[in-house]
Amino acid sequence: VDYYSYLVSLLPRDLECHYFDSIESTNQFLSNRPFSNNTELCVARQQTRGKGQYGRTWQSQKDGSILFSIRRSFSQQRNLNGLSLVVGLAIIKALEDELSISGLTIKWPNDIYFDNKKLAGILLENQTHSSNQVVVIGVGVNYALNEDMVCETPWVDLAALTKELPDIRNPTASIIKHVLALTERFELKGFADFQMDWKRYDMLKGKQINIEREGNYITAEVLGVSSKGALKVFTQNKVEELYSSRNINYI
């Protein structure tokens, strides 16, 4: 309790919070909670079965990563495309404000990189309850990992990007507050309101990607992101918009 009392003091008072020293998955915990219109937060110092995109696992060590999930509802009218991009922007804004880190980019649709090394990942899981769309927003940010951490993706942590690494609870609170604020703006205005901001952090614009279709690979050039958060690509003499990264290989 003492560990978390300081974090609680930094967060909005009306936020329903759950804290764990260790848990299988913060996303799973909130997904299993009874439906509530209240925005809920789950923070853990360690995840033993953290979830990544498409069933992958998210590696973590105790106090090595900032790990939390937020569950909040959106109106049925709100198109949720682009939400992961907005969460990515929120993480970057928080790290810029809190730690004065620059040079961060977002790899569409849900990873944050520094110098081609992964710093953070986002996992969204959607639920529907009567007239509400409910989303569990999972965030993992590498804070101070052991150098022997084994991961197939090259990684970087906040310890490597800062001269003086702050108490983990300070950037945790800052990221949570930025995610809450920007997702509220997204609920009101949608992704189009963030499109100009996104362009500053777009890691893939101008890059080549491979798209798998029926066992064949098509090479495409990334043009940017649409006003609905889709990846705009130029392929075979036409512009296409992609909404899923499942069949994309980054070159």
Q: Mean of the pLDDT scores?
A: 92
Distance between the termini: 46 Å
SS element count, helices: 6
Which of globular, elongated, flat, extended, rod-shaped describes the shape? Answer: globular
Largest sheet: 7 strands, mixed
Number of strands: 14
* Strand line-up in the sheet with most strands: 1-2-5-9-8-7-6
Fourth-level CATH superfamily of the largest domain: Bira Bifunctional Protein, Domain 2
- Number of structural domains: 2
Q: What's the architecture of the largest domain in CATH terms?
A: 2-Layer Sandwich
Derived from helix and strand composition plus strand pairing, the structural class reads alpha+beta
Strand fraction band? 25-35%
What tags apply to this protein structure?
251 residues; alpha+beta; BirA Bifunctional Protein, domain 2; SH3 type barrels; 2 domains; 7-stranded mixed beta sheet; 5-stranded antiparallel beta sheet; 6 helices; 25% helix; globular; BPL_LPL_catalytic; Biotin_CoA_COase_ligase; biotin--[biotin carboxyl-carrier protein] ligase activity; ligase
